[in-house]
Amino acid sequence: MAFELPALPYDYEALVPFMSKETLEYHHDKHHKAYVDNGNKLAAEAGLADLSVEEVVKKSFGTNQGLFNNAAQHYNHIHFWKWMKKDGGGNKLPGKLQAAIDSDLGGYDKFKADFIAAGTTQFGSGWAWLSVKDGKLAISKTANGENPLVHGASPILGVDVWEHSYYIDYRNARPKYLEAFVDSLINWDYVLEMYEAASK
């Protein structure tokens, strides 16, 4: 299954002022496209071109670093664009998700603080995650393109903390970007969709 660059699910100006048109153009059209192009080349060379992106991520982890880097980043970004929407974020969560966050993570405010802390304290490039692991929600962080798939978990929300995700708009103020992401960008409906799929 060849990797393909998905179209953004909104126009390039939809997330202003929290994420600029310029950031989306560079991040989606240049960075994500490079992961797709490099991933396709490396998957073909490894004889894994017929597999799904999730399978390529799992099979290449720890065995083919170049392929893993590109496949994992492709997987991460397919969902990253959908994890955001215009007028998103905030504490108005679908009931089922709110109940899980209350029972597993100590409520929305604690989730928000812990999720932002995970992204802020990830040294260098990486991601902060909300995942389902062993039937419960968990917050984690990973370096570079690594994601919860390779740690026995199902990611349901992730935020990119590579500098190209925020530097145009926030310069070095990563915590401000993370606050804007949680308060104003998260597409909770898509998080719920992934939560329900992971909970089956």
Automatic annotation (TrEMBL):
| Keywords, comma-separated and alphabetical | Metal-binding, Oxidoreductase
Location of the Manganese/iron superoxide dismutase C-terminal domain = 95-192
Q: Which domain of life is it from?
A: Bacteria
Q: What is this protein called?
A: Superoxide dismutase
Q: Name one GO molecular function term.
A: metal ion binding
Q: What does this protein do?
A: Destroys radicals which are normally produced within the cells and which are toxic to biological systems.
Where is the Manganese/iron superoxide dismutase N-terminal domain positioned along the sequence?
A: 3-84
Family the entry assigns: Belongs to the iron/manganese superoxide dismutase family.
